[in-house]
Amino acid sequence: MATFESLGLCEWLIQQCKQMGISRPTPVQEKCIPAILEGRDCMGCAKTGSGKTAAFVLPVLQKLSEDPYGVFCLVLTPTRELAYQIAEQFRALGKPMGLKDCIIVGGMDMVTQGLELSKKPHVVVATPGRLADHIRSSDTISLNRIQFLILDEADRLLEQGCTDFTKDLEVILSAVPAKRQTLLFSATLTDTLQQLQSIAMNRPFFWEHKSDVQTVEELDQRFILTPEKVKDAYLVHLIQKFQDEHDDWSIMIFTNTCKNCQILTMMLREFNFPTISLHSMMKQRQRFANLAKFKSNVFKILIATDVAARGLDIPTVQVVINHNTPGLPKIYIHRVGRTARAGRNGVAITLVTQYDIHLISAIEEQIQAKLSEFPVEEKEVLKTLTQVNVTRRQCEIRLESTDFDEKKKINKRKQMILDGKDPDLEEKRKQEHEKIRRQKKKQNRKKEAKKHSAKPTAVHS
Ligand SMILES: Nc1ncnc2c1ncn2[C@@H]1O[C@H](COP(=O)(O)OP(=O)(O)OP(=O)(O)O)[C@@H](O)[C@H]1O
Hints:
globular; 17 helices; seven-stranded parallel beta sheet; Helicase_ATP-bd; alpha/beta; RNA binding; disordered C terminus; RNA-helicase_DEAD-box_CS; binds adenosine-5'-triphosphate
C-alpha cells in the first residue's frame, strides 16, 4: 500500500496531512501526485468524495515551497462556494509555509479583489466570469508567470450549461503562459475528454478510477414513485422520519428552480424543520452565511438548486433527496455525491413521477446500478397530504406578494447586458419568434382541419 512518503511528498506536508486526519493516500492521490511532481499535465477522473482536491493541492504546495512566488497557481472552479472550499484546503495544508491565497468570485466587491490580486498571492482561486472581468478591465493582473493552471470540475467548466464559461475561459487562457502545468479533475470527465485535451496539451497523464459502478459503494440509492401532487407530502414525511430516527443527520434536498427552492424552504419552515436554502437568486453574502450555518449544524436541512450539486464537502450530510429527478445522469452523480464521502455511508432518495421514469432508466444505465424502491407507508403520507398542499399554496401566495419574480427578471436583464446583449432587443426578438410560432401552429391546425373535411366518408354496403 502506498504512503505519502513513497509518492515523494516532503515531510512537512505529510505532517500537515496527519494533523488533518489524512494519513494514507486515496487511489486518485496515489496515481496523480507522482505524475504532477514529475512535471506532467494531469487529468484525474475519480468518484465523488475520493480526495481529488488534495490530489492537486499537495503537489502544488510542494512545488511552491521549493520556489515561492506569486502568482504561482490559478485554480478555476464553477461555483463561488467551491472556490472558498478549495482555498480553505490550500490554506489549511499550506499553513506551515505561510501561504497567501486570494479568492476571486462574482457577487463580491471587485475593488477589494483587485487590491488583493495586486499583492501577488501564491494561489488564486476563481470562478471564470469574475476573473475574466478583472483581466478585461485591468492590465495590472499578472497571471503570465503561473506554473499551474487547475480546472476543478473541469467538464462543467467546458460544457455549455445554463452558465456558459467558454468565452471567459478563452480570456483567461490567453492571459496565462503556454508553458505551464495543467491539471484537470472531475468525477465525470469522460464526456468532454477531447476538449479537455486541447487545454492540457502537454501529453497529459490520464488516470480514471475504473469501476463498474460510477457511484460509491457506500451509497444506498433509492427511489419513491409518486404522483406530482403527492411529492411534497412524501418530502415532509421523509424529513420527519429521518429527524425522528437520527437527530444528528443533515439532509440536502435538491430541486430544479430557485423559486421552488424558496417555496420549499418556506413550506418546511412552516412544519418547524430547521431549513435553509442556497440558490443563485440569493445575495452572495446570504449564500455564504446559509452554507456556513448548514455546515456548522445550526440548520440540519439545506434546500438547494444545482448550484450546490458539485464539489461541496460536508461530512455530516447523511441523506440527499432529489425533489425532482435530474434530467442528466451526470447531475444525478454529482448531487448524490454530496453524501457517502470519504468512505462514509449515505442514502440518496429520488422522488420520481410517472413522467420521469425514462430519466431514471438513463441514470441507471449511466451509473451501471439499479435504484431500489424506498419503502414508505403510503397511508401515513396521505394523511398529511391536504395540510402539506395547503401550506405550500399559502407559501406560494406569500412569495408572489414579494418581488421574487421581479428580481428574477432584473437578474436576467443584468446577465444579458453582461453577455453583451440588449435585453429590450432580445425581448422583442422573443416576442416575434413567439408570434411566428403561433401563426405556424394556426396554419397547421387549419391545414389539418381541411384535410379531415376533404376525406371521403366511408360508404358501407
Ligand atoms: N487521503 C485521504 N484520507 C482520508 N480523507 C481524505 C483523504 N484525502 C482527502 N480526504 C477527505 O475526503 C473528503 C472528500 O475530498 P474532496 O472534497 O477532495 O473530494 P472530491 O473527490 O473532490 O469530491 P467531488 O467529486 O464531490 O468534488 C474531504 O473531507 C477530504 O478532507
